[in-house]
Amino acid sequence: MSDAPTTDGEQSGALAGVREDLAGLDGYRVALYAAVLGLTAFYLTPIESGLVTAFKTNPEGVSSTLPFAPPPGEFFTLEKWETAVQALGRGMVNSALYAVPATVISALLGSFAAYGLTQADWRARYKAPILAMFVAAIFIPYQAVLVPLSQFWGSVPLAEVLTPLWVAGVPRAYTGVIELIVTHVAYGIPICMVLFRGYYTTVSEEMIEAARLDGATFARVYRRIVFPISTPMFAVVLIYQFTQIWNDLLFALILVSTESSPAAPVVLILAGLGESQEGQDFALRMAGAFVAALPTLIVYVLFGDEFAEGVAS
Amino acid sequence: MARLELDDVRKVFTDDDGSDIVAVDDVSVDIADGEFLVLVGPSGCGKSTTLRMIAGLESVSGGDIRLGGRSIVNKKPQNRDIAMVFQSYALYPHMTTRQNMSFGLEESTDLSDEEIAERVENAADLLSIPELLDRKPGELSGGQQQRVALGRAIVREPEVFLMDEPLSNLDAKLRSQMRTELQRIQEDLDTTTVYVTHDQTEAMTMGDRIAVLDGGELQQAGTPLECYHRPANRFVAGFIGEPSMNFFDMDVEGDRLVGDRFEYALTDEQATAVANAGTVTLGIRPEDIAVTVGSEATADNEFPTVVDVVEPMGNENAVYLGFEADPTNPFVATVGGMRQLDADERVVARFPADAIHLFDGATGEALHNRALDEGAEVEPRV
């Protein structure tokens, strides 16, 4: 904190500045800073505890130290991280196989839909019911669609259609990955559409008209004007969708179901990681959680600047 | 380059409750090849809607729009060969000036990259913005963005330019500068232009002809001076000219007009013109009122008045005068900037017989317009 008092050794100018700062401190300010500090600690403690636990031996290190204390020398180990990476590695690849395409496709389709519902030249009275359906779709709970979803995929001969893949040597279990892509795209479009729509309604109508008068067709206007200026919104939607899809356990459980499947996503493997007859390996579970969360963090870092711009707009 | 004809063009908007709103009511104007037509009127008069129908951004409810003799009503905006300059400039924010100006040529023509670059550079020279070509709109001032928006229209070399209040976001000094420059460019390129504005000064100074709209109806189309000196009706007379023409409601009694505050003696010609009207509106422009110091009216059509407020403009003073008998609702007269008049001073105002306009009290139609000197130029300049 910059308001902390400095020592006597400081220059007199700095001292005067500090005195001025302290003079401005009233009870309200003190309480405010205390509350901010308290909240920060409240939110950071579990993450910090998880992080230090992941470097401890199990069960000795975990049971003989305080949860949030760093591991002392004799209990420090990197072994849990190695185990976690080994166990989760194939799951990370499988998750990426459906999370990346599903994220990109749902964002693109959501953007198309929003463009059509905002800038296309048709009557508001026809737009309204379609928009209402999109909005309603956001609020359908995933739990309510699990049974119809599995029945639907049971009735679709997807595995037969994909025969060339199996002939090429891909395990048949990867049908589940394709199913996950389609399902996540379908359930992701409504929220993506609504996010993009909010952005496109603020786009200058005159600019779109100018582009049309400049000779661009409706599709060209999207390609050359609307798509490039939606980058900040794409960052928001990509981060949001990727995190949702990567972390989703429910659909993965229904469509792929077992962690032993070659197509098991990281969430399924993580659920069973460190569980055994002898008890729970907390250190391994913590390391696994951090490894599984890493891609979502990377996405945040990659699109962070655009994300901030998109949220602000 | 082509001639643009609006033939009984009509626009009806249907409200949500099913009621119809007529925004543009059977407007017909012929715009000659290379002509600069200004559509002018108060806000909500339908001038922007008319422009948007020409552009194809609004559908036409009735009538026809022809460009070079061929109807364009059913053509899409991108196929009309029309370029438009918007009030908000509507530049593409993610593109540089060069890309903004190239966009239309890339989308609407088969020109090679070199030809496009050449045309963009020529247009940039014409507008003196070659140093801005590699900047994005966000880094440009309002006046510079305005030039880029113009440049984007110019490079297209379209049949028609449409301009929707392009100068209204500029400050006053820059606006008058751009006004002159726009006129110069239009004259150089000789492209048919329709220019929409609510500002009667822009209409008067820029147009070859002006078309005055009110309530969706065309009131008059004519040269600026025609509209100024020979207004077709009371609306045009009041809209064109700053300060506005003074109006007085009067009853016709033989060769005299009788109002609440004064009586006016008509010439024989004027009396004949108003013979069939029960009531008329007498109109006189502020600069035509002769103001002399004194308190006694010595002749017909002179009225003793009291100065209410004086607004000095430098070159002239706008003087608000109240009739001595009833000083409410003062009227305005302009006198030379060097003349010293003070509030509450008593002066005599004379309404010269050859300067008055007479409008029908019921319909507002002009019954008699002011006399003009021989050779006064009111005919089209084109």
Q: Can you describe what's shown?
A:
- The complex is a heterodimer of chains A (313) and B (382).
- With 313 residues, chain A is mainly α.
- Chain A has two domains: 12-75, no CATH class; 79-312, Orthogonal Bundle (MetI-like fold), CATH 1.10.3720.10.
- In chain A, 73% of the residues lie in helices and 1% in strands.
- Chain A has 15 helices and two strands.
- In chain A, strands 1-2 form a two-stranded antiparallel sheet.
- In chain A, a hairpin with a 2-residue loop joins strand 1 (275-276) and strand 2 (279-280).
- In chain A, helix 4 crosses helix 12 (231-247), helix 4 runs parallel beside helix 15 (282-312) and helix 9 (175-200) runs antiparallel to helix 12 (231-247).
- The model of chain A is unreliable at 1-7 (pLDDT under 50).
- Chain B is α+β, with helices and mostly antiparallel strands and 382 residues long.
- Chain B folds into two domains: 4-234, P-loop containing nucleotide triphosphate hydrolases (Rossmann fold, 3-Layer(aba) Sandwich), CATH 3.40.50.300; 247-368, Nucleic acid-binding proteins (OB fold (Dihydrolipoamide Acetyltransferase, E2P), Beta Barrel), CATH 2.40.50.
- Chain B has helices at residues 47-55, 97-108, 113-126, 142-155, 172-189, 200-206, 224-229, 234-239, 268-273; strands at residues 4-14, 20-31, 36-40, 62-67, 70-71, 82-85, 160-164, 192-197, 209-214, 217-222, 246-253, 256-258, 263-265, 279-284, 290-293, 302-312, 316-323, 331-336, 346-350, 357-360, 366-368.
- Chain B starts with a strand and ends in a 14-residue tail after the last strand.
- The relative contact order of chain B is 0.12.
- The mean pLDDT of chain B is 91.
- Chain B: It comes from Halobaculum litoreum.
- Chain B: The complex is composed of two ATP-binding proteins (XacJ and XacK), two transmembrane proteins (XacH and XacI) and a solute-binding protein (XacG).
- Chain B: One of its GO terms (molecular function) is ATP binding.
- Chain B: It is a peripheral membrane protein.
- Chain B: One of its GO terms (cellular component) is plasma membrane.
